Amino acid sequence: MRSKLLTAFAALLSIHSCVAFAQWWDPADMTPPYLKGTPQAPKIVYDYAKRRAARNAINAAIWNNEFAKIERMYDEFLSQKLRAADGTWMVEVVQTTFDTLFQATPEQMTKVMEAWQKAIPDSKLRRVLEADRWQRFAWNARGGASASGTPGEAMQVFRERLGKAAQALEASAEVGKDSPIWYWVALIVAGSGGMPVAQFDALFDEAVAKFPSYQPLYYTRVNYLLPQWGGDYAQVEKFVDRAVKRTASTEGESLYAWIYADIAAKQRGRGFFDESALSWPRMKKSFEDLVQRYPDANNKAQFLTFACRLRDKETTARLIGEMGNKAEVINTFDGVNLETCKRFALQAA
Questions:
Q1: Shortest CA distance to 337 belongs to which of 314, 312, 304?
Q2: Domain that holds residue 137
Q3: 145/136 Cα distance (integer angstroms)
Q4: Is 151 among the domain residues?
Q5: Is residue 81 within 8 Å of residue 87, measured between CB atoms?
Q6: d(CA 210, CA 179)
Q7: Sign of dihedral through CA atoms 149, 266, 73, 252?
Q8: What's 179's DSSP letter?
Q9: CA separation (Å) from 223 to 43, 149, 215, 270, 314?
Q10: Which residue pairs from 223-229 have beta carbons closer than 8 angstroms and sit at least 24 positions apart in sequence?
Q11: 23-72, pLDDT tens digit by residue?
Q12: How many angstroms separate the CA atoms of 327 and 319, rounded?
């Protein structure tokens, strides 16, 4: 009898293991050790503060050479398919933390990666991130200008480093394809290197077949359909429509808002709202779906921002009322901020 009880208790711990494992890295977690992994443990909400705590923990571990800690966090985020309160993936915290540092502190991060290789030679994550390091270094050399507006020497360095990124992807493919980060880097390298469209789309299809709701994959592929990459907004609209249909069973209409919000942030000052095929009625429906699935403050703020920018007075007023003193406008566009949105929505005509 005692054996059966122990077995049942072990099974219960296994069911709730994500609660225990997912917060061991957070020094702010005050859950008593005896409650971790039990039904009595407080439910974790992966809100902005928790995502920031994860980013801070990873950042500190990078500079303290605590590579095993980074790998454990990454493995748990990935294996649990852990999503934050706003619907983004916790794995993306690992991705963005490293990518930001590769851009900001390239020399220091080269030393970090060398130390990681010595400490854990068979690391799967490091091999994937090595590809990201080279693609980011390539763009560091090129800058943000077009190919025609970039000096020849800079383009030469760009292509050489992009080639190293491609080599790192190939070398890590066997283990890397278990990670959405590998595919995210692969799509950047493919698009930046001018991979033929058929091959590029095949790579994208492979990526989203494995990780259908990992938003950065969609953001990256659609980036190369934008006008500055030789595309146009008709292609963008077709892509977004296919993406929504692909993910409708699990994400509903939400990907429409996610993708267009990301594009709008990238295209600031490029005539996006005048030239794109964005439909506000559909965007509104998508945001309604998104905030119902993921009622996070960030998603509500995005909804408010676009309702105000696209001159939907009724929706802007409603959202300001619902959010109260927590109302916020993010990814602000020219002339769009909380004060102007309140004047637009709440003042009499």
A1: 304
A2: 2-213+282-346
A3: 15
A4: yes
A5: no
A6: 9
A7: negative
A8: S
A9: 37, 19, 13, 14, 32
A10: 223/191, 223/266, 224/191, 224/200, 226/263, 226/266, 226/267, 227/270, 227/275, 228/146, 228/270, 229/191
A11: 788 888 777 777 766 777 777 889 999 999 999 999 999 999 999 999 99
A12: 8
Q: For 194-239, what is each residue's pLDDT tens digit?
A: 999 999 999 999 999 999 999 999 999 999 999 989 999 999 999 9
C-alpha distances (whole Å) from 181 to each of 6, 126, 131, 346 are: 39, 11, 10, 44
Integer-rounded Cα Rg, in Å, for the chain is 22
CB 203 within 8 A of CB 195: yes
Cα dihedral sign for 232, 234, 238, 240? positive
Say how many domains are in the chain.
Answer: 1
* DSSP helix/strand/coil, 310: coil
Which residue, chain included where needed, has tokens 């709202």? 273
Question: Which of 199, 210, 200, 205 shows the shortest CA–CA distance to 176?
Answer: 210
Whether 258 is in a domain gets the answer: no
What is the value of pTM for the model shown?
0.89
Task: Tell me, yes or no, whether 250 lies in a domain.
Answer: no
pLDDT tens digits for range 253-303: 999 999 999 999 998 877 899 999 999 999 999 999 999 999 999 999 999
CA distance 173 to 313: 50
What whole-number distance in Å separates Cα of residue 291 and Cα of residue 86? 8
Judge whether 46 and 85 are in contact, CB under 8 Å: yes
* First-residue to last-residue Cα distance in the chain: 75
CA 155 to chain centre: 28
Work out the angle at residue 111's Cα, subtended by the Cα atoms of residues 107 and 112, and round it to the nearest 5 degrees. 110
* List of E strands, the chain: none
CA distances from 261 to 7, 34, 283 (A): 48, 43, 9
Asked if residue 270 is part of any domain, the answer here is no
Q: How far apart are CA 16 and CA 20, in angstroms?
A: 7
* 120, 71 contact by CB (below 8 A): yes
- Amino acid identity of 156? Q
DSSP per position, 264-283:
HHHTTTTTHHHHS---HHHH
The whole-angstrom separation of Cα 25 and Cα 56 is 10
